[in-house]
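Appendix B, Record 12. Input sequence as logged:
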Amino acid sequence: MEKWIVRATEPPPGIRLKTPASARPPDDQPLAGVVANFLVMQDELRKRIHAAKGIDLARAKTISPFVKALKMGLGPCFAFLLAHERRHLWQAWQVRKDEGFPRQLC
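Logged structural output:
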């Protein structure tokens, strides 16, 4: 199940799921802070991956904050988070490639 979840999350998306309301950013979030916030979260994820050094990543379990019944090994959880980030980056590139995207923002 864990491998399937990671594969299904990789871009381009084969399966599209609605983002839970608790995970959606606020509509009024200032654009200027989006990139800075993204970079902070990337650094936090990097720190957590490094902090897990020496832990059995298959044996240590984590519970999804969105689906309480879903338990994953810590390794597959990290793989899912990284796939999810790649998916967001892929989505951003798709938007940038759109002819209607304002070029002055690039």
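The chain has a mean pLDDT of 90.
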